[in-house]
Write a structure and sequence with these properties.
Helix content: 40-55%
Largest sheet: 6 strands, mixed
CATH architecture of the largest domain: Alpha-Beta Complex
CATH class of the largest domain: Alpha Beta
Distance between the termini: 26 Å
Strand order of the largest sheet: 1-2-3-5-7-10
CATH superfamily of the largest domain: 2-enoyl-CoA Hydratase, Chain A, domain 1
Shape: globular
Number of helices: 11
Strand content: 15-25%
Number of domains: 2
CATH topology of the largest domain: 2-enoyl-CoA Hydratase, Chain A, domain 1
Structural class: alpha/beta
Radius of gyration: 19 Å
Order of helices and strands: EEHEEHEEHEEHHEHEHHHHH
Oligomer: single chain
């Protein structure tokens, strides 16, 4: 499909999604949300696409969040069932999604990044949940994901002040996986994606699902329940489950089928 506010490119098993509204620092409005909903639906349903990377057009911003000017001018606010940017309420995608943050990630933009599984940030990246400064609250996931990822007191410090946090501090706090030179976030995210693609996609999906579902229950419950999670059962029943040990025994690279 052709999109107006999003660019989609596929590199072998990797889908690269670029938020394409650089004139407003990739801030998102309702039409963009609905496009992203379709983009990630297609990614999730495509068995040939194993990993997605989300980034922003230009070098100034990943995403400046909700397009307040659009809203102030009378534009209708809203997003689909998958949430802000097509991601913040997408709880049932077991494929890894990486945020390549190249500049500002504010408000909803930061919430989109937090909804991803990994965050790779350029040195010029800046993160914040500044909603209280404009009479709002980070209700698209930031208030729930940030304390779960970095701890309550650290998250309170960011949220209650609305302060800006650098990529380096984000790494120290624990929500950034790697900091790279300005302009290199997408290349670094592709490197992470290629490394993940060396593993069985069935194992990757099972691992992600088991981790995410396990966070909702106690440790003993998670250890008992994990073998019944759908992605884990699919992994055990897959050809990859046979191929991995066989390739190891034969001292050759595995040939993953993803099924």
């Amino acid at each position: 499909m052709t999109y107006k506010f999003v660019d989609v490119k596929r590199l072998d098993r990797i889908t690269i999604v670029t938020l394409n509204r650089p004139e407003v620092m990739n801030a998102l409005h309702k039409p963009a949300h609905f496009e992203l909903h379709e983009v990630f639906n297609d990614f999730n349903a495509d068995p040939d696409q194993w990993i997605a990377i989300v980034t922003g057009a230009g070098d100034r911003a990943f995403c400046a969040g909700n397009d307040l000017k659009w809203q102030a001018a009378g534009g209708e606010r809203g997003w689909n069932l998958s949430g802000f940017g097509g991601l913040t309420l997408r709880f049932h995608c077991d494929k890894p999604i990486i945020a390549a943050v190249n500049g500002v990630a504010m408000g909803g933009g930061f919430e989109v990044a937090l909804a991803c599984d990994l965050i790779i940030a350029s040195e010029n990246a800046t993160f914040a949940l500044p909603e209280p400064r404009v009479g709002l609250a980070a209700l698209a996931g930031g208030l729930q994901r940030l304390p779960r990822q970095i701890g309550l007191k650290r998250a309170m410090g960011m949220i209650l002040t609305g302060r800006h946090v650098s990529a380096r501090e984000g790494f120290e706090l624990g929500f950034v996986n790697e900091v790279v030179p300005a302009g290199d976030s997408l290349r670094a995210a592709e490197r992470w994606a290629e490394q993940i693609c060396q593993n069985s996609p069935m194992s990757i999906r099972a691992s992600k699902q088991a981790m995410m579902e396990g966070l909702n229950v106690s440790l003993p419950e998670a250890l008992v329940a994990q073998r019944e999670y759908p992605a884990v059962r699919e992994m055990v029943a897959s050809a990859d489950y046979v191929e991995g040990p066989k390739a190891f025994a034969e001292k050759r690279p595995p040939r993953w089928q993803g099924k």
